[in-house]
Write a structure and sequence with these properties.
Layout (H helix, E strand, L loop, with lengths): L1 H59 L3 H28 L1 H8 L5 H25 L3 H24 L3 H19 L14 H32 L2 H33 L3 H5 L2 H23 L2 H8 L11 H26 L6 H18 L4 H34 L6 E6 L1 H10 L8 H12 L6 H20 L6 E6 L8 E2 L4 H7 L5 H9 L8 H14 L8 E5 L6 E5 L1 H10 L7 E5 L13 H16 L6 H8 L13
Parallel strand pairs: 3-5, 4-6
Antiparallel strand pairs: 1-2, 2-6, 4-5
Helix pairs in contact: 1-2, 1-4, 1-5, 1-6, 1-7, 1-8, 2-4, 4-6, 5-6, 7-8, 7-13, 8-10, 8-12, 10-12, 12-14, 13-14, 15-17, 17-23, 19-21, 20-21
Length: 643
């Protein structure tokens, strides 16, 4: 509540800042000041990335020394990024000045100084947030807003105009940075690797870059394409969008920890996301309607007589239209954040790509202020549909698995080497490793998991034929021997590949697929059904001896997908002898990024990238040499001919 109250007060102060600067500078001056401030807001994608990742990593450290060491690494990285941003602004100050039609390059120079402090300010706020210093963080947000407001009014009163406002903004960020300098343990051991920090920061930057571009690129483009007077009017109109977005973020930030801590059954009911969507919609539409019916003279008093638009589409109309546009985007943010709160989502990349589409749309259609807003409204409505429809379809598809779902019983933890051994055992007799099978039968049927040389041989074998399959699994996958009975079948689906996709016809639930195969006549040429029939016979005669069926999932309560063993599992379901089969399950909260678990466009693109990367690597295909050097294979067996 302290943090929420501080954030709300900060929004109010920022609104007062915009109204005051607009009133005293007029449309042209306010347009220049707001365009520069918007550049700073675009840079906030990096600032917010450092803040959220620093908060996350600091909160994960149990010891204060490790927490301080992790922060120091991120803080140094933030200063590198901050200085790099400042250098880029200085290097391109002439181009930025010309593009935004600014009165002089000195404005960009002053902004560069503030940007250098703005990025590391994010890492310091993240440290406080991760250490649960919410009161201090809220105070810092308010301090920055107060310094910006009072400093701008002070500089304007002495006749410094737009230049004084930018100086006040830069000073406010520097003061906020030094005000929260933490006391650190300099003897700490750093728990964070540079590679891990880069991966975390880059993923967050993608999301926030798309967000700030969608929210702020229109102001920069209008400043470039339209006259200074119109650009100033548009900056005042866009101000209401920032206020609505900040208000919706308070709802989103409240929803995030609730969803993260909820169970899958609670998420299935859609009550949590429904509440958030309705709250954002109610607040946003109330503001939109309120703006539409507000008399024009009130805005003239607040902003000044120059902020008056004649005609039926006056200032209140454009304010209401822009507010509605912001509400549409806020609904998309609710859906994306909801998904991100309990798994790693791919919508961040889609949002970044779509921000480019939005920018292209404004570049094409910018004949008037109304046209600019309408382009955004139409495109952001399409974005909402593209984000929400797959999300809700996925929720509905999973609903069938969740109706009678039970928590999976984990029997014991298994090593990856043991799982690989069982996986390779199920490959015997299939011709997959025909050239090696005879020589390696012993280490596959009677594996010694304590023998490092044997384990290396089995991993080399796996790399030969199933490199792409295994490498898609998340690095943090944990393996368990599990117990599967008829009660858990509702949450298990077959792996949608080849003939299984044709048989399933869109419904991959194991029981539904088994029912289809049961009712399918056995034709002489139907090797697919014949293979399942043979396994059914072996199950009935208790002669089936193969490796375990491998399942993958996110948690023991989520839907599971069969990674290997579709035929055996279906045969067990048809014979009602599932209990006689052996099962292994790999669990990872990142499993939704694996295309074998969830087939989506983004996962397939990632799979294609990984295939290309694997193709460029040098493969270890000298399995026999590895075996002979380790003494694993008997000397009297001659090697197979090289084909």
């Amino acid at each position: 509540m302290v943090l929420l109250s501080g954030s709300t007060l900060s929004v109010v102060i920022n609104l007062a800042y915009n109204v005051s600067v607009a009133h005293f500078l007029g449309p042209k001056g306010f347009g220049n000041a707001n365009a520069l401030y918007t550049i700073l807001t675009l840079i906030s994608a990096i600032t917010l990335s450092f803040q959220i990742i620093t908060a996350k990593i600091v909160a994960q450290q149990g010891e204060e020394a490790r927490r301080d060491a992790a922060y120091q690494t991120l803080h140094r990285g933030s200063w590198v990024c901050g200085l790099l941003v400042a250098i880029l602004l200085l290097a391109f100050q002439n181009q930025i000045t010309a593009y935004l039609d600014l009165p002089g390059t000195n404005l960009v120079t002053i902004l560069a100084v503030g940007a250098a402090f703005y990025v590391p300010l994010g890492s310091r706020r993240g440290y406080i947030q991760g250490a649960y210093g919410f009161r201090k963080l809220a105070t810092n947000l308010v301090l920055e807003g107060v310094m910006r407001l009072l400093g701008s009014l002070f500089m304007i009163s002495f006749g410094f105009g737009v230049e004084g406002v930018i100086v006040a903004n830069s000073v406010a960020m520097a003061v906020a940075y030094f005000a929260i300098a933490p006391k650190l343990n300099s003897t700490a051991i750093n728990p964070l690797t540079l590679r891990a920090a880069f991966q975390e920061i880059s993923h967050a930057t993608v999301f926030f870059t798309g967000q700030v571009l969608i929210n702020n690129s229109d102001i920069v483009l209008v400043k470039h394409f339209l006259p200074a007077q119109d650009a100033g009017l548009y900056a005042a109109i866009a101000m209401v969008g920032r206020v609505i977005f900040s208000g919706s973020q308070a709802i989103v930030n409240s929803m995030f920890p609730v969803v993260a801590g909820s169970k899958a059954e609670e998420r299935k009911s859609l009550s949590l996301i429904g509440t958030a969507l309705l709250s954002v919609l109610a607040v946003g539409m109330a503001v939109s309607v309120g703006l539409a019916i507000t008399p024009d003279w009130l805005w003239t008093i607040l902003f000044g007589s120059e902020f008056k638009i004649l005609g039926p589409h006056g200032f209140p109309y454009l304010l209401a239209l822009y507010a509605a546009t912001t509400v549409v985007y806020c609904l998309s943010v609710v859906v994306m954040t909801y998904e991100m709160s309990y798994k790693i989502a791919n919508t961040a990349w889609f949002q970044l790509i779509f921000s480019g589409v939005l920018i292209a749309g404004i570049c094409k259609y910018h004949g008037s202020l109304q046209q600019v807003i309408m382009v955004q409204l139409v495109l952001l409505a399409c974005f909402l549909i593209l984000v929400a429809v797959p999300f809700f379809l996925d929720m509905l598809n999973n609903a069938g698995f969740l109706l009678e779902r039970r928590k999976l019983r984990l029997m014991r933890r298994m090593s990856e080497d043991e799982v690989i051994s069982g996986f390779l055992k199920s490959e015997l007799g299939k011709g997959v490793y025909a050239e090696y099978e005879e020589r390696m039968r012993n280490i596959l049927l009677t594996p010694d998991l304590q023998d490092a040389a044997e384990c290396a041989v089995r991993r080399a074998l796996l790399e030969l034929r199933h490199r792409a399959l295994w490498r898609e699994l998340p690095d943090d996958t944990q393996w368990y021997e599990v117990e599967i009975s008829a009660a858990e079948l509702n949450q298990i689906r077959v792996f949608p590949r080849a003939q299984w996709a044709r048989t399933a016809r869109g419904n991959f639930a194991i029981k539904a697929v088994a029912e289809r195969i049961k009712n399918r006549p056995l034709a002489p040429e139907d090797t697919f059904v014949r293979k399942i029939s043979e396994i059914r016979g072996a199950l009935t005669a208790d002669t089936l001896d193969s490796g375990p069926i491998i399942l993958i999932g996110q948690t023991e309560s989520d839907p599971l997908t069969i990674l290997d063993g579709n035929h055996r599992f279906v045969a067990g379901v048809l014979e009602q002898k599932v209990e006689r089969l052996k099962f292994v399950c790999g669990l990872s909260t990142s499993m939704a990024q694996c295309c074998w678990y969830k087939t989506s466009l983004f996962n397939l693109l990632r799979y294609g990238r990984n295939l290309l990367r694997a193709f460029l690597e040098i493969r270890n295909t000298e399995v026999l040499q590895l075996c002979e050097s380790s003494g694993t294979l008997p000397d009297e067996v001659p090697p197979p001919p090289v084909l």
